Amino acid sequence: MDYISELTEKGKDAKQAARKLATMSTALKNEALLAMATALENKQDVIVAANAQDINRAEANGMPKPLIDRLLLNQTRILAMAEGLRQIAALPDPVGEVLGGWLRPNGLAITKIRVPLGVIGIIYEARPNVTVDAAGLCLKAGNAVILRGGSEAIDSNKAIAEIIAGAAYAVGVPAGAIALVETTDRQVVSAMLKLNQYLDVIIPRGGAGLIKTVVENSTVPVIATGTGVCHTFVDVTADLAMAQEIAFNAKVSRPGVCNAMETLLVHEAVAAQFLPAMLERYHQAGVEIRGCEQTMKYHAAVKPAMAEDWAAEFLDLILAVRVVSSLEAAIEHITAYSTCHSEAIVTSDYEHARRFQQEVDAAAVYVNASTRFTDGFEFGFGAEIGISTQKLHARGPMGLPELTSIKYVINGNGQIRT
Amino acid sequence: MDYISELTEKGKDAKQAARKLATMSTALKNEALLAMATALENKQDVIVAANAQDINRAEANGMPKPLIDRLLLNQTRILAMAEGLRQIAALPDPVGEVLGGWLRPNGLAITKIRVPLGVIGIIYEARPNVTVDAAGLCLKAGNAVILRGGSEAIDSNKAIAEIIAGAAYAVGVPAGAIALVETTDRQVVSAMLKLNQYLDVIIPRGGAGLIKTVVENSTVPVIATGTGVCHTFVDVTADLAMAQEIAFNAKVSRPGVCNAMETLLVHEAVAAQFLPAMLERYHQAGVEIRGCEQTMKYHAAVKPAMAEDWAAEFLDLILAVRVVSSLEAAIEHITAYSTCHSEAIVTSDYEHARRFQQEVDAAAVYVNASTRFTDGFEFGFGAEIGISTQKLHARGPMGLPELTSIKYVINGNGQIRT
C-alpha cells in the first residue's frame, strides 16, 4: 500500500473511532489500558524478537552504542511500559470535567466541558516505548492516535502496536483508535503534516531537527515540545552551598535531557567565593566548561566561550558559565538566549526571587531548586506526553488535561437573538 | 522602508514592549485604554478625513456598496469604538490569575499562573474598527500586537493606530506595544506568517480565503477563526412553534455572520406539519431555499439542493433544507458537513437532547436556542477577539483569557532531583 492510501485510510478510521471514543466510559477505557498492559507482559517474547530485528539492522548500519541502547527492549523495559499503562489507568479521566458554567440574563445556561481533542498525530524518533506511552495517554483522554515512529524501530513498533491495539479492540475500543504508520518512507511525515482533514493536532517528540521540520511544514496545529536552553543564576545573596548542589544537579544528573541546565550565571560579587570550588567539582565530574573572561580566572580547565555557546543546547556534559553584574543582567542574558523552558535563581533575597519569577518568561521558573524538576511526573501529573515550549494551548509538562479541548453546551427554552 | 525591515523593526520593538507589558499594572493598562478612547473621540475629524481617502479610493475602484459601508467610519462608529475600549477597561484583568497550585512531597510549591501570550499578530480585512478592538483586547491581556489590516482601509488604520498608540504611550505603555504594518504589499502577509522570532501567535480575522492562506502558510502558531456551517435539527418531539422561531432567527436575523444557520434538518415525522409554514415564512423573508427531494414537496419555491450545498457557508439569505429519518441521521449529517462551530437541536426529548450535546462535536451545542448566540458578548465575556473553530488553545468565542498563556512558578529551598 502506498503511504498516501495508508494515511488516508488510517486517518478516516481514526476519525470514526474518535467519535466513539469521545463518549466512551472511563471504566471501559481503563479496562482497555489494563488489557493492553497484560498483553504486553504476555507477549514479551514477540516484542523481544521484533526488537532483535531492529537491533540487528542498527548494528549492521553502524548505529552508535548509545542510540542502540535507546532502541533496545528487554524484560525490564517491557514491564516498565506495562506499568506505565496501569498508572495511566489509575489517573482521573479528564473528559467530561465541567470547567465552569453560568446562567445568562436571557435564561440560557452555558456549561464549559472538557472534551477530547479528537485525532492526535505523534511523530517521534527511536525510542519504542513512546508507542505505548502515547497510545495509552491519548486513549485515556478519549483521543484516537496516529503514531509515526522512527524507521529504526519499525519492527518493534509494529509488534507493540499490534499487541496493544488488539488488546484494546478486544475489550471494545473501536478499531482505528490506535494506528501506527507502517510505511517508513520519510515522505510520509510531510504527508502527515498536511493531513488537516483527519488530524486535530500533531505533537512531535524528538530532537531539535524533527521539531523544526514539523513546526515549519505542518498545516495541522502543532504543539512544539522540547528544546531547553535552561539557566541557573546564582545571586549575590545565594546560600552558596545550596547553589552548588542545585547547579551541579541541574547540569550533571542527566545532561541529555531538555530540563538540564546549559548555562550557569553567577553574580560577580560572589564569583570569587563560589566559582573555584564549583568549577573544580564540574571538572572532576567530566564537565567541559566554556566560560566568559571572568570565569576563566577561576579555573585552569575553563575554555573560552564562543558567542554560539550562549545559545547552545549541549545535551551533554558541557556547560557555559558567565559572570554577570546584577539580577537585571542575568534576566537580560536569559531573555536573550532562553528557549523559555526552565529557568532558576538561587537567592535569599525576597524581592529578587519575586522579580525573577515575574520577569523571566519561561514555562517553569524556579527559586532555590534544580531545573531538572520540569517533568510531568515530578509535577505530580502522573504522566507526560511531552514538555511544551510554546505558549499556545499548553506550556510546560503536558499531562492528560493538555490532551483535551473544550466544548460549550447551551441549554435554552426557545431563546432567539434580537 | 521595505516590508522586511518594517516587520523586523516592529517585531523587535513589540517583543521588547511585551516584556514590560507582562508586568504592567492593571491600573496603568486601564488608564491607557481610557486615554485611547478619549483620543479617538477628540480626533474624530482626523479619522473621518483619513477614512474619506479610503472611501474615495474604494469608489474609484468600483468597490461594491456593502463593502464600502463596512469601510465607512462616521461619528456613531467612532464613538462605538471608543465605547468598546471603555468596556475593555472595565473587564477583569486575566493576567496574574492563579489557576491552581500544589505542594509536592519533596516540598516544592508549584503555582500555575496566567501570563500574557507575548506578541500577537492580527491579520484582518476591511473593517477598520478591528484595529481598535484588537489593540484594546491585546493590551488589556498584557500582549503587544502587530496589526495588519486590509489595504483598502490603510489610511483609516494608520490614523487610528497613530491616535491610539500615541495616547497609550503618553500614559506609560512602552513604545512598540501597538504596531500597525504600513506596507500594503501583499507579500507582507507571507513574511508575517514566518515571523516566529517575534510573534507568539497569529489570529486571522476575515473570510474563508484569508483563514486558509494563514493556516496553510504560517509557521507561527495560529488560532483559526470563523467558518461556520451551522445546523439546526428539528426533532420529532420539537415544540414546532418554538422550532419555527429558532430556525427563522438562526437564518434570517443576520445571515452574513458565522453563527448563522446554513442547513436546516427536519425529522421526517414532523416534516409535513412543520415545513410548509416554515418554508413559506422563509420565502416571504426572501430566503432562497435549496432542499432535498422530500423538502421540495412542501413548497413550490424550493430549488433542488446540489451536493455542494450541504457543505456551503452561504453567509447570505440562502438555506439548505434536508429531511432526515432520525436523530442518528441528523447527527451523521452534521458530522459529515459541520465546521464544528455551532449546532442546535429543538426537541422535547431529554435523551435526544443529552445525546445531541454529547455526540455532536462543535464549539457550541445548543438545545432549544438559536445558534446566533455564539458570540463573546452573548456568552457574557464582555469582549471578543474572534470565534475559534479549532480545538487547540481556544474553542468558541475568545475573550481576554483566551489571549493568555500560563507559567509555572516553583518555590523550593534547595531541592535537587535524585
Short description:
2 copies of one chain form a homodimer. By secondary structure, chain A is an alpha/beta fold. Helix content of chain A is 42%, strand content 21%.
Key structural traits:
homodimer, 418 residues, alpha/beta, Aldehyde Dehydrogenase, Chain A, domain 1, Aldehyde Dehydrogenase, Chain A, domain 2, 2 domains, seven-stranded parallel beta sheet, four-stranded parallel beta sheet, 14 helices, 42% helix, amino-acid biosynthesis (chains A, B), oxidoreductase (chains A, B)
- Kindly report the CATH topology of the largest domain in chain A: Aldehyde Dehydrogenase, Chain A, domain 1
* Sheet/helix structural class of chain A: alpha/beta
CATH class category label of the largest domain in chain A: Alpha Beta
Could you give the distance between the termini of chain A?
55 Å
Detail the poorly predicted runs of chain A.
none
What profile does the largest beta sheet of chain A have? 7 strands, parallel
Tell me the number of strands of chain A. 16
For this structure, the quaternary state is: homodimer
Determine the fraction of residues in helical runs of chain A and give it as a percent range.
40-55%
Percent strand of chain A: 15-25%
Strand order of the largest sheet of chain A: 10-9-11-8-7-12-13
Any idea what the CATH architecture of the largest domain in chain A is? 3-Layer(aba) Sandwich
* Largest interface: chains, residues each: A-B, 68 and 68 residues
Spell out the CATH superfamily of the largest domain in chain A.
Aldehyde Dehydrogenase, Chain A, domain 1
The total count of helices of chain A amounts to 14
Family (chains A, B): Belongs to the gamma-glutamyl phosphate reductase family.
EC number (chains A, B): 1.2.1.41
Catalytic activity (chains A, B): L-glutamate 5-semialdehyde + phosphate + NADP(+) = L-glutamyl 5-phosphate + NADPH + H(+)
Subcellular location (chains A, B): Cytoplasm
